[in-house]
Design brief:
alpha/beta; Cobalt-precorrin-4 Transmethylase, domain 1; 21% strand; elongated; disordered N terminus
């Protein structure tokens, strides 16, 4: 049964050890995402996707307990345990977000022991382990009828002399030789030494091997080699942690079965700046095409400072000849206000309705309203030409829209003879808070973004205001010439400008750009 917000909030403090999955944010389990959205406190490390941390409520406290600087740790395990205990005792719902699965080659077991000893209620939410997911994203099956069904998983970051001893690697070598596959997690620290021990155990130097860095993410890099060559090839390719290594005949299937790295947007880091409600759908489409889509909403909507003008207009709705909507958000806000005032939507039947853009028109159709006019070019300047002087002259026109917006449309309507143009604020746009802000500043500073996407001029302005970093040289994609001009004016290197002013058009243009020889 899905957990409800009220049910969780009525509980006493509890800790959820949640598997964050192997790296890609959409590989978290349904249960994990559900719990994360209800968290009061999120305790996480660098293997947990920043997009997952962003999934927690804005009110949630976020505590980073991973490595900082050159890899040093700010928090040791007892300190992390104490954080979990203290926040739970304060009556909070605590999510300990751990890369992969909480109980697979991590310290989730130790954390669970500490919680149990302290009398703290806890729940383990399993995650997709990188031991399975990372090879799959590199096209490497761990079992195969021809190559065997034995699989061994081992951590590679411990000092063998202190923990496992040479005999274990000899046994592993025998398992792999007898039709098996070895998966080494956290493999970078002692990679050469461990592969040499496998060779000393009798595994042929020609045994296929693969090393995968940041598997399942857009930063994934795969090196295919042999037991004798892989260490050198990993060094030459500059692969570092997090690294998963696969040893055995199945690793040789990688080049043939690789699929993730062949997706059209694989390896591209693309920022989505749309409002949160719209950002998720666009980001999902980008991820399906292989991109690392970072949701960074720069716009949020709130009620206008006053509904007085809109309420007065609705009170005499039958007096208008046209109602013009300039955005889907405006449609939603207008209909919500009708409902709030307990006025039937059929009260608008005396006016004809115009929409700028197919998304706006589609939202009107969702509410059962007929769109009488829609320009082929999705901007305000084109609407007056579409309506024509005969439909504008002497007309009373209502425009429910954002509290602050361009004034070109009312001026054009008056210039074409409109008797009245009433611009009624239905909502206002604001700059939202964003838990990803510091990460975004660092990405902009390091020029580590392939593309920032903008659907409006306000999104451009808000992005620059939020990030506060110089954006010269940062590549951008924009819908429409007005947004494109704003992006250029703020210093972005505008490399994608969609001729069709829709998200579909923008996506098609992005694909075309990255498929070109030198994007």
């Amino acid at each position: 049964m899905p957990a409800s917000s009220s049910a969780v909030n009525n509980m006493t403090g509890k800790v959820y050890l949640v598997g964050a999955g192997p790296g890609a944010p959409d590989l978290i389990t349904v249960r994990g995402a559900e719990i994360l959205r209800l968290a009061d406190t999120v305790v996480y490390d660098y293997l947990a996707s920043a997009d997952l941390v962003q999934m927690a409520p804005a009110r949630a406290e976020r505590i980073f307990v991973g490595k900082v600087g050159s890899g040093s740790k700010q928090f040791d395990q007892p300190m992390i345990n104490q954080i979990l205990i203290e926040h739970a005792r304060a009556g909070k719902q605590v999510v300990r977000l751990k890369g992969g699965d909480p109980f697979v080659f991590g310290r989730g077991g130790e954390e669970a022991e500490a919680l149990a000893a302290a009398g703290i209620e806890f729940e383990v939410v399993p995650g997709v382990s990188s031991a399975i997911a990372v090879p799959a994203y590199a096209g490497i099956p761990l079992t195969h009828r021809e190559y065997g069904s034995l699989v061994a998983f081992v951590p590679g970051h411990h000092d063998d002399e202190k923990t496992s001893g040479p005999f274990q690697w000899e046994e592993l070598a025998q398992i792999i030789s007898a039709r098996g596959t070895l998966v080494i997690l956290m493999a970078s620290a002692h990679l050469r030494r461990n592969l040499e021990r496998l060779a000393a155990g009798g595994l042929p130097a020609t045994t296929p091997c693969a090393a995968i860095q940041w598997g399942t993410t857009a930063a994934q890099k795969t090196v295919i080699g042999t037991l004798g060559s892989l260490s050198d090839e990993v060094e030459n390719a500059g692969l570092t942690a997090p690294l998963v290594v696969v040893v055995g005949q199945c690793a040789g299937l990688g080049p043939r079965l690789s699929w993730a790295e062949r997706l059209p947007l694989f390896g591209r880091r693309i920022v989505v700046t749309r409002a949160a409600k719209e950002a998720a759908a666009f980001a999902t489409r980008l991820r399906h095409l292989g991109a690392e889509a970072i949701e960074f909403p720069t716009i949020a909507t709130e009620p206008p400072d006053s509904y007085a003008q809109l309420d007065a207009a609705i009170g005499r709705i039958q007096s208008f000849d046209w109602i013009i909507f300039t955005s889907a958000t405006g449609v939603d806000a207008f209909v919500d206000r009708l409902r709030n005032l307990k006025i039937d939507i059929r009260a608008t039947s005396g006016a004809r309705i115009a929409a700028i853009g197919p998304a706006t028109a589609a939202r009107l159709v969702d509410y059962g309203l007929t769109v009488a006019a829609r320009p082929d070019e999705y901007r305000a300047e084109a609407l007056a030409a579409t309506l024509g002087p005969g439909n504008i002259a002497g007309a009373r026109i209502l425009i429910p829209r954002a509290q602050v917006a361009r004034e070109i449309l009312p001026r054009l309507l008056y210039a074409n003879g409109a008797k009245e143009v009433l611009v009624a604020p239905a909502y206002k746009t604001v700059i939202p808070g964003n838990a990803n802000l510091e990460r975004m500043r660092q990405l902009v500073r390091n020029r580590a973004i392939d593309l920032v996407t903008f659907a409006s001029s306000s999104a451009v302005r808000n992005f620059c205001a939020m990030v506060g970093e110089r954006v010269e040289g940062v590549k951008a994609a924009a819908i429409g010439p007005i947004t494109a001009a704003t992006a250029r004016a703020h210093g972005f290197d505008l490399v994608v400008s969609s001729p069709e002013y829709t998200v579909d058009g923008l996506l098609a243009t992005i694909l075309k750009y990255f498929r070109s020889p030198s994007p």
